[in-house]
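Justification of resources, computational component.

The compute hours requested in this renewal are based largely on the per-chain cost of generating structure records like the one below. Each record pairs the submitted sequence with a full structure-token output. That output is archived, and it is also reused by downstream analysis tasks.
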Amino acid sequence: MKKRLLVFQRALAPYSIDFYNDLNAAFDADIYFFRKNLRSQKFDMNKLLSQLNFTPKFLTFGFELRHKGRLIRFGYLKKVVQFKPDIILVWEYNIISFFTALFTKIVYPKTKVYSLCDDSVDVAITSSTLRRIGRFLCFKVLDGIVLDNELAEQWYNKHFPDVKTTVFPIIQKEERILSIINVSDSITQGYINQYKLIDKDVLLFVGRLVEVKNLRFLIDVFSSYVAINKNAVLILVGDGDKKSELLKMVEEVKIQDNIIFAGRFEHKELYAWYRAADYFILPSIWEPFGAVVNESLIAGTPVLCSNLAGATCLINNENGVTFNPFDKDELLSILNEVFCKKRNSFNNISTRNSLMPYTFNQKMQELISFLVEADFE
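The structure output for this chain reads:
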């Protein structure tokens, strides 16, 4: 008989579809989201919901505090009583996670409660006082945490040795993503033709155009690189409140011909961009993980990744480079090095192999085993 799993999470995102689908398949699951969409950016929810193998439920009765969008919801403890789960998955160290774990510990002591935590080492170290208090309180009642990268797990094991941990990175099923990418070759070729990328050295960024993505730093370094290699092109896929500021900066450094603001895309129109590039870059100064790194690696495009991002756990000597997102000279040197040895991207865009160091299925099986075995302790 399958174990009963109750899930309380903020919202559904494209990069978590496989995660929830597999949890639903492995357990007798009841999955609730507390927002109808992400706070930071809005996705086509009809398209996302159509990819699920279950019907999600929503608990939206309550309100949201202005300070960093903190959620207050009502009725979630009633769901614990009604469902009587063997395992509960909450998120981070918020008030909902704390009261869920505290209530369960008192009323259903055999039920295990775990939190999904997206901390990178940098995020864990620089946490606000309020978050540290929440972490301290939650550790008193949680049975453990699921982290998204091995370096963060090492940090937690050192500083909180009594807390049980496991790792499940924010990754997706290769076969599903590749099935989308492989039928998007015509879209990729359209991008290449539209922006005249043939024989260009193409660097790609995908994400929100916001402060923490460190795009002024990237444009500054890239402008120096363009002085050396006028054949280079930087493509920024996304939108955000810093777009006008970045456009002005590009004009000031006079590299309008070398930087493309492509706009925001989803699903196959987004995935098609990864194979239009030689390298992908994530220059963030604050990045709990970075799901785009996984998407790029699945597409077979190597990654230049900020060493502050949790997704550095996916980078090895075969698939990319990590760098200090405050060191302009280091990144400039890396750009020189990687484009000197780049592959011919456009003759083999449909035959690139995944560069991921492990598969989604491997990590999911480890997580399921952890949850089930912990339940029997």
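The radius of gyration is 21 Å. The chain is about 40% helix and 20% strand.
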